[in-house]
TrEMBL record:
The keyword Methyltransferase does not apply. Keywords: Signal. It comes from Desulfomicrobium norvegicum (strain DSM 1741 / NCIMB 8310) (Desulfovibrio baculatus (strain Norway 4)). It holds the Pfam family ABC_trans_aux. Residues 31-192 form the ABC-type transport auxiliary lipoprotein component domain. This is ABC-type transport auxiliary lipoprotein component domain-containing protein.
Length: 200
């Protein structure tokens, strides 16, 4: 009888421990820099608009893995185990920039590198991400050196650097990613203004 009660107690304790462990399972969240906006391009031109290509976009090696890296000050990054990118950061940023340029330039003739052989862009946008970091609960930083090449002009490409920063609305990775999306939106605006000035 004592053995039976002891076994029952051990079984109950085991089940209790297992249920406790099951209740603390951490799920992994996935994020994207590409946040498509509802609706078509703004003020689409009758002739289809300017033809623009985006890419290649290069990123630091720390951004080539799925785990989200924050920080970056002094070359030190913090990798999140349960917060990951849903795709390749360079491709996601290319798509995000292409979306912004499409809307701001009023054109659907936008493609990301490598583009179809039948696509002949007038403007090519190249970008080198120097840093994408920031502190959770504080800010998200994005530094990009970018260039615009105009096929109708044989001169030197327009080369610029943009250092962008957005305050976070919450101390979590979701807010950090949203802030980086806003940084990319601002970057798209600056590049679009450059393209418009060259097209005049």
């Amino acid at each position: 009888m004592n053995n039976l009660m002891r076994r029952a107690s051990l079984l109950g304790l085991t089940l209790l421990l297992l249920s406790g462990c099951a209740g603390h399972v951490t799920t992994t969240s996935y994020y994207s820099l590409y946040a498509p906006q509802a609706g078509a391009a703004l003020n689409v031109q009758a002739d289809g608009g300017l033809a623009v290509s985006v890419g290649p976009v290069t990123v630091p090696d720390i951004l080539k893995q799925t785990r989200i890296a924050t920080g970056g000050e002094g070359g030190r990054f913090d990798l999140a185990e349960y917060h990951r990118w849903s795709g390749e950061v360079d491709r996601e940023m290319s798509r995000a920039l292409a979306e912004q340029l499409s809307r701001r330039l009023g054109t659907e003739n936008v493609s990301i590198f490598p583009w179809d052989q039948h696509f002949a862009p007038r403007f090519r946008v190249l970008a080198d991400v120097l840093n994408m970091g920031g502190v959770l609960g504080s800010e998200a930083n994005l530094s990009v050196r970018w260039a615009v090449l105009d096929a109708e002009r044989n001169g030197e490409p327009v080369i610029r650097r943009s250092d962008l920063s957005e305050r976070l609305t919450a101390p979590d990775h979701s807010a950090w990613v949203a802030a980086q999306q806003r940084n990319i939106e601002k970057l798209g605006g600056v590049i679009a203004e450059t393209i418009l000035s060259l097209s005049r």
